[in-house]
Amino acid sequence: MNNQFEYKKIEKKWQDHWENSETVKCDLESDKPKFYNLCMYPYPSGDLHMGHIRNYTIGDVITRYKQMNGFNVLSPMGWDSFGLPAENAAIKTGIHPREFTEERIANMKSQIIRLGSLYDWDREVAAHSIDYYKWTQYLFIKLFENNLAYKEDAPVNWCNSCRTVLANEQVIEGSCERCDTAVEPKNLNQWFLKISEYSEELLEGLDEIGDWPENVKTMQRNWIGKSEGSQFELNIIGTDLTFDVFTTRPDTLFGMTFAVISPEHELINQIMEQSDKKDEIQNYLDSIVNKSEFERMSITKEKTGVDTTLKVTNPITNVEVPLWIADYVLVNYGTGAIMAVPAHDERDYEFAKKYNIEIRQVIIDKEKTINVDNEAFTGNGVLINSGDFNELNSHEEASKKINDFLVKNKIGDEKTTYRLRDWLISRQRYWGCPIPLINCDDCGLLPEKYENLPVLLPEIKDYINTDGSPLSKSKDFVETDCPKCSKKALRETDTMDTFVDSSWYYMRFLDPKNDNEPFESDFINEWLPVDQYIGGVEHAILHLLYSRFFVRALRDLGFMKIDEPFHNLFSQGMINFGGAKMSKSKGNIVDPESYFATHGADALRLYILFMAPPSDGVEWNDGGIEGTKRFLNKFWDNMVKIIDQKDTSDTFKSNDEEIERKINQTIKSITQHLEKFEFNTAVSDLMKLNNDLSDYLKEDNTIQIDLKDSILRNILILLYPMSPHIASEIFQDYFDRDISQEKWPTFDETKLENPVYELVIQINGKKRHALIVNTGIEEDEVKEICTTNFDIDFSNAKKVIFIKDKLINIVQ
RNA sequence: GCGGAUGUGGCGGAACUGGUAGACGCGCUAGAUUUAGGAUCUAGUGAGCUUUGCUCGUGGAGGUUCGAGUCCUCUCAUCCGCACCA
Length: 812
Known about the structure:
The chain is α+β, with helices and mostly antiparallel strands. A hairpin with a 6-residue loop joins strand 24 (about 480) and strand 25. Helix 1 (about 5-20) packs across helix 24, helix 6 (about 200-210) runs antiparallel to helix 7 (about 215-225) and helix 23 (about 705-720) runs antiparallel to helix 24. The protein binds one RNA strand through helix 7, strand 11, strand 15, helix 11 and strand 31.
């Protein structure tokens, strides 16, 4: 073996080998237990960044570790290759988004291979490829035919910079998540997927799902936003207008001193007609329209409103209370209208104070610490001023009783509301999957015939269309025949949100070349859910929630029998540089590719695993990678030395036993660490073992042949998942076979225990002495040792605590 | 405001069911080697002190215990997510 660790040569050699090897070609029908290991497929930006490196290194450790544990591992890779950057580049440079994208895929793929990760490239899929988006369209039509996709006029979020609408999930603090531009409300006819139909199921599923990070589950729960309460009707006095209000606090109903309706409520025009102050209302509504969404939603903003001069009747007291229009009531939550109870709701309180509306207290806290003259009381207490309901406990008891009253009098009922809205998937952009629907004047909205799929993206020259989708500029595309009556008809010109593509890519990986259907259901039922999904936390809501919805929808359409797409989820933390998230605009990118040249893929992988627990965010540090490079050099030296040791048939020497014990301990420890995703400590175990091996090799230069084989085999396999190139090379050099076919080592229980340990002698709980003694000695012997060595007198001890093989504590 | 998480040397971080705090690595100091630098090797490296040893020390304050980074109560700080959700 070469005395120098020539990582460039070795890494190239093994990467070429893996590209063509059968090691990771997954036969879905093998007898071995299955393990679907998946890293989130990347958007092909052109270059790997450190986040990808971390993601794929973790994934590859799992792939190789599970393979050695006898699993049939499926590890595919593909491209989330529709999306805005390619189109924006096309606008700038004129290069077609397809060409742009495919160039970047090629570049990124070569970098992924350069990292040394194993993927079954025969299964590679790309969202923009015709044989992929054909099936995206197919599934969309299935959803449409089953009323899970629909088109509707709706107020939507428009990003003027990206020139498209956005899903609620893509709006962060009132701004576009991509470009930070403040979104504008617009009323547009748009496509939605009915995710809200699955609100309850998506929520409940989180309790039964496999191992997911708690914060991701919580974020999804909050996003779904379930709340339970009552809904009842209010009638506007002197009119036949009625509207519903939703409340989680029916126990405060006697305290309702006004009602509020949202400025966008569907009754708003009729209310205005009935009002004495029509002009004032009109002025108010105009002032609202001019405000940005973010401005309106901001909690710091003072609430505004206008009195309609109309009254509604409190259904339980029959008291007449004023009806207001106010912007703090959101049209798209609940019913878009509320009963206002200022005494017991902070928002209503603030509003009532500002406009001098009556505040009527109906719940009193037992300690009487809160005075509703000064602040709202939102806690638990006892009902007052509430007629027959006085003295009941709020919330539960009183809410239940009052709700019963509403039901009995046919005014209202229990109601559960969710914050989750339907998923808006229309995008007015070019580089996405065309929505395969056709508008016929006579037949209405119809899906393209299955046999005509895919609806191909047209070739166009101008990607900018200020009023509508770029696709509408292609006459050939837009003008078509009605699938039903064959008359002239028009195609939909919007494309789909790329999250539709990524909602099912992990299904296509199971059957990527199927020409007849998106996938064979048998494969799905057998291979889903994904056993281990690994990716960044930025997808906690978007992609992960959409995919969970997709599986349920397709299940109900008969495509599969599973409920959840991803059993275990691991979210890796972000890698920062200079205290900030790496980004091109900040100019603080650390380019992983340069480290392939200067340190090698193995050193980079090892460092990225070693630098921190993988779920923590961490600061990039150049010095750290020097450390893992140094480790690999020393490791190589040790391997050369041990291979060069002369064989003897001598019985074991004491240092032989010691190194054997260390190896057994390390097998146990690394196995446990890998199972728990504690890669940083797994690497540190390897470093320790390497240090021990250095000490061992200093002592003499002979070794028993079986021990030599066992040391080499075990230590190389332990390193292999994390640094596969160097481990493969040395293993092949010495054993003349491929390490990837080896079994993960087991440890020998009898060879774990150290023969001696350092006994700690404490006096009153403080460490006073320490001494190396034989493992397993009992209390009497330990006491004797204490007396002989340290002159400790046990006769006046109040208490003696003895922990076997650890310590003795003498309390005086 | 609500929810989730995290606080340990100069730095990244270890510490199994309460049992020697600081493993492993970076950095730093000294020495060896080298024409020099780099690389490598050896030793040291939580703080303080009256340095054979003692005291303090895991964000802070209490508590339980023979013994607390770990358990309990309160509190402070930072990060992330949601945010007028009725």
